Amino acid sequence: MSGLLLLLLHGNGYGEHAKSGMSGGEPSGPAPSGGAPFDNREALEASQSALGRAIGDYQFRDQRGDPVSLRDYLGKPLLISFVYTSCYHICPTTTRHLYEVVKKSRDALGSDSFNVVSIGFDAAVDTPARMARFSEAAGIDEESWGFLSGDPQSIAGIAEDLGFTFFSSPKGFDHLIQTSVITGDGEVYRQVYGMNFATPLMIEPLKDLVFGTSGEKSLVSSWSDRIRFFCTVYDPAKDRYRTDYSIFIGTFIAFACVGLFGLQLAREWRLHLRAAATTTTDHRSSR
Length: 287
Hints:
The chain has 9 helices and 11 strands. It is α+β, with helices and mostly antiparallel strands.
């Protein structure tokens, strides 16, 4: 368990994260009571305990300064990551990797199949202007990806809903590196950890949600999504997903061959019965 925990939490990345994320002053953020050190295991347990939890409708401002509600991004699957803009290594690196996986996800699942938000959790520093510069530095310019700033109450609320633990330290912030996968209805579906997580760890739960069946879908749409679900496969050599219909084509050919064989067998059986009937009639006539 401890080895898995270290892997998920990017080894000793907390000290590196704090060092590279110095903001030049004492950053704002919740601190553990009694000045206790950040507990990796408790942070992971808190994160996992959020699975199945419904997130609240909190108010933020996007990178353009426009007021937005977190619910504005729902109605389809949503990815939520946490950053702080005075971090100069881990947060930008994690966000760039997330962007690469998001692009692969859109290629496989559809360009408008899900939304993304990155929330600046340093309320005193992460203004819309700072979040805009952060997104520009990461090379991200997508309408369906919001870089959000909020007041301490909104940030504390969504952090609690998602089981995201963070607190200020003399060198920056200590926190879990996580991206949460949210259903279109606003429930926490999966947590993905680490700076450079494997592509399937993000796309597989998204694929579940994007191609999942829904009572509101028509029969044709439901079957279409099921086919796309089974035919969207991961290619580890290229680290990308592709659509492979060969299994369904092969199955169709197999059923067609069985059907043709069955038809031929039935035809031969009918000819046999007809020949037997003719033989019986001739025998009776000769008598």
